[in-house]
Amino acid sequence: MNSLGHIPEGVVLDQPMANALLYMAICEGLLDDDPTIGDGFVRKLLSNHPPEQVVSDALEQLILGGKVFVPFWLPSRWNGELLERQTVVPIESPAESEFIEVPQMPADLVLGMLRSRDAHWSHAELADQYQAFRKAYSDWEAISAGKSYDGLEIRMALRGIWPIEEKDYTAEQISAWQTVQEEYRQLRPVMDCVEAYRRVITTSIQFSALSALPVIGPHSLSLETPSASEGLERRALLRVTCKALRRVPIGNTLRETIHLAASPEAQGLRIKLTSWTERLRQGEFEPAAIILPEVEKARKSLATAKTLFRVGEYSTWVGVPVAIAGAFLTGPVGIGIGVTVSVIGGLALTGQKVIERFNQWAMYAQE
């Protein structure tokens, strides 16, 4: 642990973003495109063109993490540069019993995860569906007479060979149970999001990595789990920084984005994001108030570095011939001038490199 706190190495992707990244990798020749791989997994993947927003989100997360962890099933025998370089790291998913508990999920997070899965619900629809499920289950409990909901599910599955009699479950109880089942089916996409959320967060905690989860609404959304909240904060900071630097945070292709993510400038930016995230969590400032002064300071420093580069380049060019000429002059004066000018040039070039090293993050995505 350094003075900046934990600098995450990697980000855990939600399934739609992971699939978008894998889709791009296949299209760009970074993964084997044999459609039979994984009993048709690759074929199914290629048949579902990911939305542009999900692709953009996935590439942005790669920049934030440097590499990505995928806690969802992937074929074990799948070759390609993306996996060999461990840009994408498949993770053996923990058992569901090992997932962290989720006391609640913000509606904006649920709706964001649903939308990335091509289920476009509104806040009202989500609330109505949840209330309908709660009412149906409450109605079942009111007439269940203490009988097991799961027990009836087993009996319903076996009713062909073990008929249900009135003394076991009344028609009214069966009807109430079926209503709960139907409401649960309607709510199933939400439950799938809850399961995916728990899987992502559990893995991110296990590997001390960021978690990538789509959210509808303000980026400052507060989440119960720090890992999820931190991912959102860094993403917001990345966008503000790139806007201030007048840079695009991702490449045009997956290859370009991988190159950007592996650059020293990206690593420097990730360190900066760690520092800014801690300041943001302490309630110090708004993101723009933290970033903009540092961007301006870095710009001025880099402008100075360019000046030093020109001075160093010029002094070295002048100094070398003078130093050589000094050897043919009488006395030490000529030699002294040549050496002095060369040293000044060397110091200028050294100063330029020091400035650039300390402000490397501000050179991110700079051509």
Structure description:
The protein is mainly alpha-helical. The chain has three domains: 11-100 and 207-281, no CATH class; 118-194, no CATH class; 299-363. The chain has helices at 15-27, 37-46, 52-65, 81-84, 107-116, 123-143, 149-157, 171-206, 226-245, 254-261, 264-281, 287-326, 333-358, and strands spanning 11-13, 68-70, 88-90, 210-212. A four-stranded parallel sheet has the order 3-2-1-4, with helices on both faces. Strand 2 (68-70), helix 4 (81-84) and strand 3 form a beta-alpha-beta unit. It is elongated, with a radius of gyration of 29 Å. The two termini are 33 Å apart. Mean pLDDT is 77; it is low at 218-226 and 304-356.
Radius of gyration: 29 Å
Q: How far apart, in Å, are the first and last alpha carbons?
A: 33 Å
Largest sheet report: 4 strands, parallel
**pLDDT under 50 segments (min length 5)?**
218-226, 304-356
Domains (count): 3
The main sheet orders its strands as 3-2-1-4
What percent strand?
Answer: under 5%
Structural class: mainly alpha
Mean pLDDT metric: 77
Topology as a string of helices (H) and strands (E)? EHHHEHEHHHHEHHHHH
Question: Considering DSSP H and I runs of 4 or more, what fraction of the residues is helical?
Answer: 55-70%
**Number of H- or I-type helical stretches:** 13
Task: Count the beta strands.
Answer: 4
Tertiary shape: elongated
